[in-house]
Automatic annotation (TrEMBL):
Origin species: Vannielia litorea
Domain Nudix hydrolase: 7-145
GO molecular function: hydrolase activity
Taxonomic superkingdom: Bacteria
InterPro entries named among the record's database cross-references: NUDIX_hydrolase-like_dom_sf, NUDIX_hydrolase_CS, NUDIX_hydrolase_dom
Keyword Metal-binding attached: no
The entry's keywords: Hydrolase
Pfam families: NUDIX (PF00293)
Protein's name according to its UniProt entry: 8-oxo-dGTP pyrophosphatase MutT, NUDIX family
Gene3D superfamilies in alphabetical order: Nucleoside Triphosphate Pyrophosphohydrolase (3.90.79.10)
Cofactor(s) needed: Mg(2+)
Amino acid sequence: MHPRDLPPTPKALAAVLRGPGTARELLVFTHPLTGDQLPKGTIEPQEDPATAAIRELREESGLSLAGPHPIGTWHRPWEPGYAAPQLWHLFTFEAPRDLPECWAHEAEGSPAEAGLIFAYRWEALTPALAGAMRPLFAPVVRLILAAQTQDAAPKGGA
């Protein structure tokens, strides 16, 4: 069986946001080997996606946040170099007010990332950000932006 036909590997992504609805910012990090991205990783056996998002955020950023808000999934098709397609479960977290503008964190949890330093910073959540990210993350940034736009839309009713 070709890898593209295998069941997708489940992943969890943690998007940390701050600021008012008209000026939202997204927490982004620079991976020293692959460029700008968001905290994400494999969901462990018997782990639910929300718990995995909390764990991945802690391992990759040092942040211990609760209250993940599910915004959907994204299917990453198989491509050479990967064992199977991936199904990303997307969650947003609201940042506490006391987070710094930038910081560095040594990644934990994954042997492939052992010793790597991730440099975190805030970026304006705009359509231009999708183009500035590592291309793999561009569709996800667009989904996060769409979810924020939908959440900020006026609700119907009198």
